[in-house]
Input
Amino acid sequence: MPQGKWFRIGYGIIVFLLIAYLASLVDFLFDPIGAVLAALFVPLLISGMFYYMFRPPVRLLAKYLPLSLAIIMVYLAVIGIILLFSWLIWPPIREQSITLVNNFPEIIESIQKWITSVQKHPWVKNISQDESFSTENISSQLSAALGDLLNSIVGSVKSFFNIAMNFFLLLGLVPFIIYYMLKEGHKFPLLVLRILPTRIHGEALPAMKEIDASIGSFIMSKLVTSLIIGGLTFCGYLIIDLPYPLLLGLVAAITNVIPYLGPLLAAVPTVIVALTVSPIAVLQVSAIIIISNQIESNLIGPKIMGKQLNVHPLTIMLLVIGAGAILGPLGMVIVVPAYAILKIIVVRVYNSHINNRIDKEPNLIPPRG
Output
């Protein structure tokens, strides 16, 4: 039987696929386990996100207060922020959302009128004389695409509110998970080391520290930059007197958590609303989006990010597109940190393997003296 490196890898793949096939034959045993893991995934994901958000202020307060009291103080501050949001910001957002949904037919009609006015331009009329280029066909296609887009936006808004409602249903469980993560999170690396073989402890502990720093940096940077992007776009939309400025600013803040593609997703509904105002408004909105994202990516983002995830931008875009097609919006958010974690583990394992192989090689250089 061949014993080469690639044959061993091939044997491993075959064994893995065979195990997966055999497991599929007894899926009635694994389906309950999968259902339990799926039910725990969302609260654990939300708790992990808030753990990294709450950890810096908790550590700061823990220098002067007992840890439990520091956590409670942060909880009270968060409750105050939520109450302030529900009192000052939520009512206009709700009002603008209802108005936007009610005005969808008028928005479509306004954009159709704009397309019709473009068709009457002499230059467009000359082009449309060619049978292969029909402005009427383009108009109908654009109208249909716009209707599908608006329906998808409404569906996305509904799914967002469904996620929010599920979050509130989990509200009784998540704070307790976050509390124990904040209080005993420092014990997690030691628990992992107990499971792992002793020979890889030297690589495992630095890898866990690197993963922790990268994920914490990613979450905190996205939180701060999303708030900044939301504030900048909201102020810009107010200046140009764009309808629904607070709602569209909130959309820009939320979609900013999706690397690189977030601004494009936020631009779609904003440009649609701007088309109902004037072509100049579209240019103004585009300028606001570009300027605010340039400020965030070139001036604010690098200072906040600290330790980068060290992932190439093209890789990030491909990952986000692929995860969005498979897992939807949630996949677009979590794919980059998940890839960063996997990359750190693979690099550490590879380096450990190389170092061990070098250490086992005989020293062919005779000692001096």
Notes: The mean pLDDT is 76.
